[in-house]
Design a protein that fits this description.
Order of helices and strands: HEHEHEHEHEEHEHEHEHEEHEHH
Number of domains: 2
Bound molecules: 2'-monophosphoadenosine-5'-diphosphate
Strand order of the largest sheet: 2-1-3-5-6-4
Shape: globular
Structural class: alpha/beta
Distance between the termini: 21 Å
Radius of gyration: 19 Å
Largest sheet: 6 strands, mixed
């Protein structure tokens, strides 16, 4: 089986499943995608549940998400996970988007149902579970700073924070303009939340971060070799909780820098696990894949 499939492989069942026993019926789509650890944990859950299907990596370029969904639908796929950079593009490509995903502002999983593709979001609830798992605290009790809040994952995480009732949220993005629509949406969701939107280069960023409890990298920065941490060193202090949605390399540049400062750190592996298990349960209602997926991930290497 190839490490990565492309749209060219989605022309027919004969091509897609050549030489395979089980048909490919689930996928993770993104760009890049070769690093994704989703197949290890999703395939383990499929095998444990006795479902005769393969879960594959599918490389899809920006602008081609609609075509990817159409081809998967035609070939009888059950669903797909969606990763960087498609979590916003896929929203427009689905026939329907769950109300919760609309509230979170992004889609990270799709279900191919009779006559329609349904987008939903498990990043938000997966993130909340990951924070509880890793740090033993409720997300809603923390003052949170989200870096990369302009991306699909960042928007969902920020919305999850206000839905959980955080008293203070700082959203940070390299491109400040991308934050304004998000800021209005968040304010409407939680008028009582003290919300600040800052550019990555704002002189007030460091001081603002020092007043927070939890700093999160929701961007893909750190995933590519040689990339520095997205969080300036002056933003970190001992005692901070620091969560990086990226989890490869281990440790990521951000987590290495944060640990050296005396922060408590956790990588996105736990969010990958929880968002994946929640998606699996939507595709296969009544299933309980968490323990199998956790064990499979512990033995796997890979990135976001
Ligand atoms: P997705 O929507 O799937 O999460 P994305 O659209 O690529 O992925 O979003 C990635 C996020 O990472 C964005 O917040 C992006 O910032 P911009 O809105 O300014 O583009 C952020 N990001 C990506 N590369 C970055 C970099 N080198 N420095 C800072 N932020 C970066």
């Amino acid at each position: 089986m190839p490490e990565v499939y492309t749209l060219n492989d989605l022309v027919s069942r004969e091509v897609l499943d050549a030489g395979e026993v089980k048909p490919a019926r689930l996928a993770v789509i993104g760009w890049p995608i070769a690093h994704s650890a989703s197949p290890q944990m999703q395939q383990a859950a499929l095998d444990a549940a006795g479902i005769p299907a393969r879960y594959v990596r599918l490389e899809v370029a920006r602008g081609r998400v609609g075509e990817a969904l159409a081809r998967m639908g035609e070939l009888g796929f059950i669903g797909c996970n969606v990763t960087v950079p498609h979590k916003l593009e896929v929203m427009a490509a689905c026939d329907v988007v769950d109300a919760a995903a609309q509230g979170l502002g992004a889609v990270n999983a799709v279900s191919f149902e009779a006559e329609r593709t349904r987008g939903f979001n498990t990043d938000g609830p997966g993130f909340e579970r990951a924070i509880a798992d890793e740090f033993g605290v409720a997300l809603g009790a923390l003052k949170v700073v989200v870096f990369g809040a302009g991306g699909g994952a960042g928007q969902a995480l920020a919305a999850q924070c206000v839905m959980q009732g955080v008293a203070r949220l700082v959203i940070v993005n390299r491109t400040l303009d991308k934050l304004w629509p998000l800021a209005s949406r968040l304010q409407a969701l939680a008028p009582g939340c003290e919300l600040t939107a800052l550019s990555l280069h704002d002189p007030a960023l460091a001081e603002t971060c020092l007043g927070g409890d939890l700093l999160v990298n929701a961007s893909s920065v750190g995933l590519h070799p040689g990339e520095p941490s997205i969080v300036p060193a002056a933003c970190l202090r001992a005692g901070h909780l620091v969560y990086d949605c990226v989890y490869q390399p281990t440790p990521t540049p951000l987590l290495e820098q944060a640990a050296a400062r005396g922060c408590r750190t956790a990588s996105g592996r736990s969010m990958l696990l929880h968002q994946g298990a929640l998606a699996f349960q939507q595709w296969f209602p009544g299933s309980a894949p968490l323990a199998v997926m956790r064990a499979a991930l512990a033995g796997a290497s890979g990135g976001r």
